[in-house]
Automatic annotation (TrEMBL):
GO biological process: antibiotic biosynthetic process
Entry keyword set: Hydrolase, Signal, Zymogen
Species whose genome carries this gene: Amycolatopsis thailandensis
Keyword Ribosomal protein: no
Protein name as catalogued: Penicillin amidase
A GO molecular-function annotation: hydrolase activity, acting on carbon-nitrogen (but not peptide) bonds, in linear amides
Signal peptide extent: 1-24
Family according to the record: Belongs to the peptidase S45 family.
Top-rank lineage group of the source organism: Bacteria
SUPFAM superfamilies, sorted: N-terminal nucleophile aminohydrolases (Ntn hydrolases)
């Protein structure tokens, strides 16, 4: 029996029209309860319809695998701890679900997790701590869909075609993937150290991790309400920033419809059903990573003299738990060897001897354990499921409160009624400022004010995490103790703290671990607020106004300093070419902008110099417009400009070269120039890549991924445009490997087809039925 049953276009449209043209699709006549119907429209976007949750998951899994099967199985190989065996021990992992620096370190980390049985215990929990029934059914169907596609043998992606590791996935693989994503900012960030820490040995780990994140996960999000929109209804912007090459956090676009129960369009991660961000008929949500919130703490342990693996708690000795973790690894000759490494765990969590660049020596008298608030969290899919069904912004934030499964995401929602809501309800250790003052060790006192990182005294049970009565899990803050905000004009976030989602309503009063207040905002936050204010001075937001904001490519740092830099430049001998390039630059980071690259290299140095670069310092009363006025008398700043000129000349790049000549990706051997720029310059369309002194920027590797602008209009068919910057498929053989990347280069959008009448009107419509049988 054919795996794909292709329906002739005329027949398909007739069948679907017979089912009606309501917002929610009806499955075609004759579809069994286990079948899914996939309608493909422009740029390979699938619209999936089914009769039940299993069928819906099945269709999504099949369609996701068709585009990104290598990415899905790559993550499964990772969480099964099979990378060293399949791909060799020394290469860096491509999955991105931890910050392990090698396949061997990744395997040892995940094998340790697997042997602990943590995910299986969480699966045994009743909902909402364990998955909802509907979520379990979605995941069951999803796995069947992925595996059905694997059985077609239609794998053309050279990344995995014919690979021995391309095996069917399991439901447990999906849950392990979700669990790992939740710990990226915490335990997963010190995977190298967890797998290599030994008493008395030098601090382990390669130092790849950063204390305050280092995952490459960021975002912009804006939600506009009735007081700031042209028609009195909501407008949503989504702009997550993620690594472009890592499979575990790659985004993929689809629409899921189960008549009467769900009709959501948006983007999620291949390998995990449902959406990270998107919209339904009447509400939309986007999200940002909480770079300023800590989802973990350290505990400093007092060790028993003469026994470095025994620590004291309230004066009583307690032994660490040793697990000799064993994985198979491929040798240079192709054979296999068994690698065994001990891992040490405490009541608080695993022992680590490094946090980013900070060494945490395991001495004869002390050691450190990392405690992750999301180690006991498997509810992310519950939260995604409930958010997608929210009919208003308030219902979406209510879903976050009920499920409490988001590990580290802020949610910003808006709706057809023009209300906007935000939530920072996610996994945050229950460490009040009072407890931090009582329990922080000297290292904790140093780190807590600066970075929000608590290092608590592990020798006292009184210093363990607390618990809120409304928290579903022990040891974390409940929803009533975490920030939310509701307005009717706008809310926005660009990875700064909860303090300033709207400059008109600064929010304070939450523990330091939740985020700082009254501090200098990042340049992207400031630039975003400046652009919002500029639009509101002209009139309310429309969908087009939001699209213009997204792709304005204004360089906010340049808007603050360029005139002063040009003036400084003209006092520096031999800099005439640089001065002309900066003076004639249009101040934007479009692909054709000339002078942008020179400013980029200059600002990449200056931005690391700290607050001393400004004549006017940060003022809490004016957080959007301060600090300002570059101190051009600072010799280091003058040196930075000369250094930028030297960099470009060394790479044989003209000082006024078009930006896109050296800011690009290559697809199918073709260089695709890109605009956008680094977050440090305040370019809202954030993009970045490595700088090669001999060639300049090489390929872009990080930045904007799935973009949407959803503008509600009261019809149930919102005016929505989307863009998946790296396109739907990672497979270079796919027709949808670079088509949207080409659009992105030209600042063009895809008009979404959400309602039935629009899906059926697509000139690219292809209707496919796939069956579990």
């Amino acid at each position: 029996m054919l795996l794909w049953k292709r329906i002739a276009a005329v027949g398909a449209v007739t069948s679907l029209l017979a089912a009606g043209t309501a917002t929610a699709a009806q499955p075609p006549d004759g579809a069994s309860r286990a079948d899914a119907t996939i309608r493909y429209t422009e740029y390979g976007v699938p619209h999936i319809v089914a009769n039940d949750w299993v069928g819906l998951g099945f269709g999504q899994g099949y369609a996701a695998a068709k585009d990104n099967v290598c990415a899905i199985v790559d993550v499964a190989v990772t969480t099964r701890a099979e990378r060293s065996r399949r791909l060799g021990p020394d290469a860096p992992p491509t999955s991105g679900v931890s910050q392990a620096s090698t396949n061997l370190a990744s395997d040892l980390y995940f094998q340790g997790l697997n042997e602990s049985g943590a995910v299986e215990r969480l699966l045994a929990e009743p909902a909402p701590r364990g998955p909802y029934r509907e979520v379990r059914e979605l995941i069951r169907g999803y796995v069947e869909g992925v595996n059905k596609y694997l059985r077609t043998g239609e794998i053309t992606d050279p990344a995995c075609r014919g690979a021995g590791w391309l095996k069917p996935i399991t439901e447990l693989d999906v849950y392990r993937h979700a669990h790992a994503v939740g710990m990226i900012f915490g335990q997963g960030g010190v995977a190298d150290s967890i797998t290599a820490s030994l008493p008395g040995a030098p601090p382990a780990g390669a130092g790849r991790e950063q204390m305050t994140g280092g995952t490459g996960i960021g975002s912009n999000a804006i939600a506009v309400g009735k007081a700031a929109s042209a028609n009195g209804r909501g407008v949503s912007l989504a702009n997550p920033h993620l690594p472009w090459q890592l499979s575990g956090t790659r985004l993929w676009q689809s629409q899921l419809s189960l008549p009467g129960k769900l009709n959501v369009s948006g983007a999620g991660i291949p390998g995990i059903p449902l959406m990270w961000l998107g919209h339904n008929e009447t509400a939309a949500w986007s999200g940002t990573a909480t770079d300023t919130t800590r989802t973990y703490t350290l505990f400093e342990l007092k060790l028993v003299p003469g026994s470095p693996t025994t620590y004291l708690v309230d004066g009583k000795p307690e032994r660490m738990r040793r697990t000799d973790v064993s994985v198979l690894s491929r040798k240079a000759d192709g054979g296999l060897e068994r690698v065994v490494r001990p891992q040490w765990t405490t009541r608080y969590g695993p022992v680590t001897t490094r946090l980013g660049q900070r060494e945490l020596p395991w001495t004869a008298s002390s050691a450190f354990a990392i405690a992750d608030a999301n180690a006991g969290n498997l509810s992310m899919t519950n939260s995604m499921f409930e958010i997608a069904r929210g009919r208003t912004a308030g219902e979406m934030i209510g879903a976050v409160r009920r499920t409490q499964g988001l590990p580290w995401m802020n949610i910003i929602a808006t709706d057809d009624r023009g209300r906007v809501e935000s939530s920072q309800i996610h996994g945050v250790p229950h460490v009040t400022d009072e407890k931090a003052a009582r329990c922080n060790t000297p290292l904790g006192k140093e780190l807590f004010d600066a970075n929000g990182i608590a290092v608590l005294d592990g020798s006292r049970t009184a210093c363990a995490w607390g618990r809120d009565r409304d928290a579903l899990r022990p040891g974390v803050f409940g929803p009533s103790s975490l920030p939310t905000l509701s307005r009717d004009d706008y809310l926005a976030n660009s990875n700064d703290s909860y303090w300033l989602f709207n400059p008109a309503e600064p929010k304070t009063g939450f523990p330091r671990i939740v985020g700082p207040v009254r501090y200098e905002q990042n340049m992207r936050t400031r630039g975003g607020f400046a652009e919002i204010a500029g639009q509101l001075a002209k009139g309310g937001f429309t969908g087009q106004a939001m699209r213009d904001l997204m792709f304005s490519h204004r360089d906010h740092a340049a808007e603050l300093v360029r005139a002063d830099v040009v003036g400084m430049c003209r006092t520096m001998p031999g800099m005439e070419g640089a001065c002309a390039a900066l003076a004639n630059w249009d101040g934007r980071s479009d692909a054709e902008s000339r002078g942008a690259l020179l400013f980029d290299r200059f600002w990449s140095t200056v931005d690391r110099m700290g607050p001393g670069i400004w004549k006017v310092p940060f003022a809490v009363q004016d957080p959007v417009d301060t600090p300002n006025t570059l101190d051009t008398g600072n010799a280091a700043i003058r040196k930075a400009l000369a250094g930028a000129v030297a960099e470009l000349k060394a790479a044989n790049i003209p000082l006024d070269a078009p930006y896109g000549d050296n800011h690009y990706v290559v697809r199918g051997g073709k260089k695709i120039p890109l605009g956008g720029g680094t977050a440090g310059r305040g370019v809202y369309d954030s993009l970045g890549g490595p700088w090669d002194p001999a060639r300049g920027y090489t390929e872009i590797v990080h930045g904007g991924t799935y973009l949407h602008v959803v503008a509600f209009n009261g019809t149930g068919c919102p005016d929505t445009t989307t863009l998946l910057t790296y396109s739907q498929s990672a497979n270079p053989e796919s027709a949808h490997h670079s088509d949207q990347t080409e659009l992105y280069s030209r600042k063009r959008w895809v008009t979404e087809r959400y309602c039935e009448k629009d899906i059926l009107a697509s000139p690219s419509l292809e209707v496919v039925r796939v069956s579990r049988r």
